[in-house]
Amino acid sequence: MTQREVAHAVGASQSVISKAWNRFRRFGSVSRKHGGGRQRVTTSNQDRYLTLHARRNRFMPAVSLQTDLQDATGVRVSTQTVRRRLHKVGLRARRPAVRVPLSRAHKLARLQWAREHRRWTLNQWGTVLFTDESWFCVNFLDRRRRVWCLPGERNLPQSVVQHDRIGGSSVMVWGGISIGARTELAIIENGSLTGQRYRDEILRPYAGAMWPDFVLMDDNADPHRARLVTEFLEEEDISRMEWPARSPDLNPIEHIWEQLQSRVQARQVPLGALVELRTALLEEWQAIPQQNIQNLISSMQRRCEAVISFRGGNTDY
């Protein structure tokens, strides 16, 4: 009987039958030799070295771990092998969480605010206009950077990138959101934002055009807390929400900025084309579904509970 006939009879390919026959002729059996196959390139001790080294140097890329392993043990492996060994123990290279640094005083203020607002209803949050400024610039952070962490470790202090202010210069915008509405997006040009500019260019034309009896939420940036701004709000009978310093994770508009950034990036605006960037920002701001905004504001109670759970520290939001 030929190999083709055998393959047809047992329902296998001819190549499988050929390999089995060659194995039988060579070893006297078609079974694989025990312990056969490619030899493992690292020992258990070297695997432990990689794991400990990655956990102690969480932001070290695989190529640097590969080099350090070779320097320490003389064993050269591929970066793919490094990743496989770390994946086996649960370590994955993830984009690091970006958080603002918090002092003890910041945490206490955040904790107190969250406890005061944890029982607010959606109707109460519906009276608030959440506002903020944001920069839209190129490569303000290295988005290729990764951190080695186990599941649930992304927000540990050693896995977080501390980021205080957005650097660079490009386009600065201001916007406000609420459950049922949003402001126009304001482009802030020709210099930095001062208290006077905040009053005259932002609050008068934008926030002042919102519904009666709304509550203004703005953070504690110096222009927002200028005396002339406070006087203007009192004159216009606009209520202002007390806000804990360094709390972007409590402001749902931060996620709208992320959505706006993604939508603008999808348009592939050429680098340096500021006019096109401004146009894209204005158009995409209006195109964000209102349901997205409502869903984010509906998370305020959960955000308060998260701050309480983290004892005033940074949350996952």
Would you kindly provide a written description of the structure presented here, covering whatever features stand out?
The chain is α/β, with parallel strands linked by helices and 317 residues long. The protein contains 13 helices and 9 strands. The strands form 3 sheets. The protein has a 5-stranded mixed sheet with strand order 7-6-3-8-9, covered by helices on one side. A hairpin with an 8-residue loop joins β6 (171-177) and β7 (186-188). α6 packs across α13, α8 (195-203) packs parallel to α9 (227-235) and α10 (253-266) packs across α11 (274-287). The radius of gyration is 29 Å and the shape is elongated. InterPro entries: Homeodomain-like_sf (IPR009057), RNaseH_sf (IPR036397), Tc1-like_DDE_dom (IPR038717), Transpos_IS630-like (IPR047655), Transposase_5 (IPR052338), Transposase_Tc1-like (IPR002492). Residues 47-118 form the Transposase Tc1-like domain.
Short description:
The chain is an alpha/beta fold. It has 13 helices and 9 strands. Helix 4 (62-73) packs across helix 5 (79-88) and helix 6 crosses helix 13 (300-309).
State which percent range the strand residues make up. Answer: 5-15%
Radius of gyration: 29 Å
Distance between the termini: 70 Å
Q: Which architecture of the domain at 106-142 and 168-309 per CATH?
A: 2-Layer Sandwich
Helix proportion of residues, in percent? 40-55%
Series of H and E elements: HHHHHEEHHEEEEEHEHEHHHH
Largest sheet: 5 strands, mixed
Taking pLDDT < 50 over at least 5 consecutive residues as the criterion, the unreliable ranges are 138-143, 163-169
CATH topology value of the domain at 106-142 and 168-309: Nucleotidyltransferase, domain 5
Mean pLDDT: 86
CATH class of the domain at 106-142 and 168-309: Alpha Beta
CATH superfamily of the domain at 106-142 and 168-309: Ribonuclease H-like superfamily/Ribonuclease H
In the sheet with the most strands, the strands line up as 7-6-3-8-9
Number of helices: 13
Count of distinct strands: 9
